[in-house]
# Entry
Amino acid sequence: MSSIITFFVAADDDSAAALSEGGPGDDLPSATYGNFDVWTTLAEWESLATDRSLMEIEEAGGADMVSGADEPVVLAFPASLTRALSVADRPALQRLGEQWIELRAEEDEEIEEELAADLLTEIADLARTAVAAESSLYVWVC
# Structure
């Protein structure tokens, strides 16, 4: 099964949820990727970026689903992850990418360094946009 995963900025949960069927349009800042477990990824990123244990993140519930019980769904980025990414500089993003690659390797999943760097840089840019606009970061999974 293939998935399209689009990270995007929206004003609020209601605005983001309204996009569940068709996804975000070109009028919203976004970045599209595919074929990875976004729920696990968000939990791992939050754990690594906020220096909290993965168990603590998972017990807190992780990303909130703002629409859909089945795909397509819209998830709200955890606020702590959005904040952490919005202030991360290039070296911090590089460390985060390296740590994420190591975590995924422990589960026999290979992530290329260039993909991790591109993905995290683009998501951090979206997080900065969201914070500056007093909006939120979301992910649409189809």
